[in-house]
């Protein structure tokens, strides 16, 4: 399950969770692993320097973002370290969640990272860009330029909609609950 920043991926996933479907939140999990997975911590320190972690051992996200945000080669190095760790963690998670007809993986960059190739079906959550910007500004307390800079790093929403098997329109008009319920029913059918 994917979608641009602020499209409502997490909100949509919470509804699937209410119906008993486990969700692997890949972006949150990546952040957790960067802090707690010893092997990953060592790799990040050796690639980007000890300053990546502060004196208390907390990951300095702003510092790391400063290194990779406008430098494709540094970003590739970071992804080359983090993606395999998340992939391995996701495989372990899958093995621990086999009791439901299907499970979900939430990631903002599902297509951009190539992870979509490992999945059976893709759900794209979409919302008008102005609404996404407004929602993220309110949620994160950031200005419009900061949100748009992040949007510019992602694939255009239309491309994700075109490639998806299911689309959730989170435009504040169509019922999100009804859309999620319909997809849930179809996925159960497919899994049976
Ligand atoms: P990100 O890519 O930044 O993780 P996301 O796609 O997971 O974002 P959410 O965090 O689910 O998006 O939603 C962004 C914000 O918009 C949240 O504060 C959420 O509560 C709000 N929001 C999402 N959907 C709706 C909706 N249908 N009505 C009102 N608010 C909504």
Describe the structure.
- With 192 residues, the protein is mainly alpha-helical.
- Helix content is 56%, strand content 7%.
- The protein has nine helices and four strands.
- It has helices at residues 9-18, 26-36, 38-48, 61-68, 72-96, 129-140, 144-151, 157-163, 176-191, and strands at 23-25, 104-106, 123-126, 166-169.
- Strands 1-2 form a two-stranded parallel ribbon.
- Helix 2 (26-36) crosses helix 3 (38-48) and helix 2 (26-36) crosses helix 5.
- Bound molecules: adenosine-5'-triphosphate.
- The site of adenosine-5'-triphosphate has 15 residues, from helix 1 and helix 6.
Short description:
This protein is mainly alpha-helical. It is 56% helix and 7% strand. It has helices at residues 9-18, 26-36, 38-48, 61-68, 72-96, 129-140, 144-151, 157-163, 176-191, and strands at 23-25, 104-106, 123-126, 166-169.
> How many beta strands in the DSSP annotation?
4
Radius of gyration: 17 Å
Strand content is 5-15%
The helix content is 55-70%
The H/E string reads HEHHHHEEHHHEH
Q: Write down the overall mean pLDDT.
A: 94
How many helices? The count is: 9
Our measurement of the CA-to-CA distance between the termini, rounded to an integer number of angstroms, reads: 20 Å
Task: Return residue spans where pLDDT drops below 50 for at least 5 consecutive residues.
Answer: none
**Shape annotation:** globular
**Protein structure class:** mainly alpha
In spatial order, strands of the major sheet run 1-2
The major sheet is characterized as: 2 strands, parallel
Small molecules (ligands, ions, cofactors) in the structure: adenosine-5'-triphosphate
């Amino acid at each position: 399950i994917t979608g641009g920043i602020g499209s409502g991926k997490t909100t949509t996933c919470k509804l699937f969770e209410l119906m008993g479907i486990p969700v692997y939140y890949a972006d949150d999990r990546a952040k957790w692993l960067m802090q707690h997975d010893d092997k990953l911590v060592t790799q990040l320190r050796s690639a980007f320097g000890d300053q990546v972690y502060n004196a208390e051992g907390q990951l300095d996200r702003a510092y790391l973002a400063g290194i990779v945000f406008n430098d494709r080669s540094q970003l590739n190095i970071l992804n080359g370290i983090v993606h395999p760790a998340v992939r391995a963690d996701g495989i372990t998670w899958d093995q621990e969640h086999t009791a439901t007809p299907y499970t979900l993986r939430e990631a903002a960059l599902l297509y951009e990272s190539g992870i979509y190739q490992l999945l059976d079906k893709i759900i794209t959550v979409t919302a008008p860009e102005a609404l996404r910007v407004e929602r993220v500004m309110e949620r994160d307390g950031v200005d419009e330029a900061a949100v748009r800079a992040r949007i510019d790093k992602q694939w255009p929403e239309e491309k994700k909609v075109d490639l998806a098997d299911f689309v959730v329109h989170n435009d504040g008009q169509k019922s999100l609950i009804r859309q999620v319920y319909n997809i849930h029913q179809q996925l159960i059918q497919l899994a049976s």
